[in-house]
Amino acid sequence: MAATGRRLSDDGVSGGPARSSLADLDAFWQRTTIGWHTVYLGLLGLLALIIGSSGDLSSRDRFTGLLTVGVLVVVYLLIGRRLVGTEERGWQAVVQLLVSWAGLYLLIGMGIYDAYFLLFGLIPHIWVFLSTRWAVVATFVLLTGLALIEVGHDGWNTEKIRDVAPQAGLQIGLSLLMGLFITSVFIQAEKRAALIDELERARTELAQTEHSRGVLAERERLSHEIHDTLAQGFTSILTLAQAIEVALDRNPGAVRDRLALLEQTARDNLAEARALVSSLAPVGLQDATLPEAIERIAARFADETGLDVAVQVDGTAPVLPANVEVVLLRTAQEALTNVRKHAGARRVTVALRFRPGPAGAATVAVVDDGQGFEPDATTRDRYGLRGMRARVEQVGGLLEIQSTPGAGTTVRATVAVPRG
């Protein structure tokens, strides 16, 4: 019980800004110590009142009794009061116990048997000031000594010993039982509070880990969004600017059309930037269905590159979750960007297919007739395919890359359609 106080204070601090269970238990123990002080000092005050008003004591015995009670009060205020709720088990605890029990022995030896009710405070002090092992020994020794004092006061005879021995044995047994029980309760309460604090710390750490993981996932999502929108838009602007520069010398009449397309691309890119900052859906999906958005990006791609681009829509578009539509649209955009950068193609087909039924799925595929490549382990994650694959897998989809050198490339993303 003495060990409880200070350990609780130390562990309570480590629980963080929130009040821990150990700190709550420590606060309860600190409040309980006030009760210890009140009970013990109240018992001493009551005993002083009884001794002072007793007519059965001589003046000398009354003075000695009051002086003894006064010494007990002073020693407790100077030493014992500070020991309650701490782990101090040095000479101060020994002095407190020796003085208090010596005072009880003196009072009993003088025949002041009303002092017996001091045991309500003195026996718990043994378990408060000493460790469990020494408290067991001290309880046996001190209560045995009290029994010997009582026997000696009435004379050393066999009859008195037979009267006192059962009473002393009962006192020792009950004191040990109560002391061990209360100590066990406090130890279990401390362990339970420590376990609760450990669980709270683990939950806090888990929440912080999940938060960090969410931040990383959001950063990755934003990087994909920037790559699939702003970066591609700037690439288109750069391509148009270069085309305008060439057209200035060869075909000045086409410059106006190129400038108009350049302006529209810049406006769309600005709108994408604003949507990204506002965490909105892609601009293409804000006022159009997924097939319409696919057709728009395909038409723009054709205008920018001059390639032959065909759009095929198979099936009726179901109501898809916003994140699925975003993934399919971004996949088509990224695949077209790869065609522009690497394929050297003349014709591109963008196919959007919706398969109804319990095993329904939505598929977007971009097929080109370009130079293709060997889709081995090294090239499979090149050209932004890693980010594309991660985006598709985040919504439970599958990204397939099919390509043969000289025979073009097919990029296909398939996402299951949730049942309505």
TrEMBL record:
Ranges of residues in domain Histidine kinase: 221-419
One annotated GO molecular function: protein dimerization activity
Transmembrane segments: 34-51, 63-79, 99-119, 126-149, 169-187
Keywords recorded for this protein, A-Z: Kinase, Membrane, Transferase, Transmembrane, Transmembrane helix, Two-component regulatory system
InterPro entries documented for this protein: HATPase_C_sf (IPR036890), HATPase_dom (IPR003594), His_kinase_dom (IPR005467), Sensor_HK_TwoCompSys (IPR050482), Sig_transdc_His_kin_sub3_dim/P (IPR011712), Sig_transdc_His_kinase_ChrS (IPR017205)
GO cellular component term, pick one: membrane
CDD domains per the UniProt record, alphabetical: HATPase_UhpB-NarQ-NarX-like
Name used for this protein in its record: Signal transduction histidine kinase
SMART domains, A to Z: HATPase_c (SM00387)
Keyword S-adenosyl-L-methionine: no
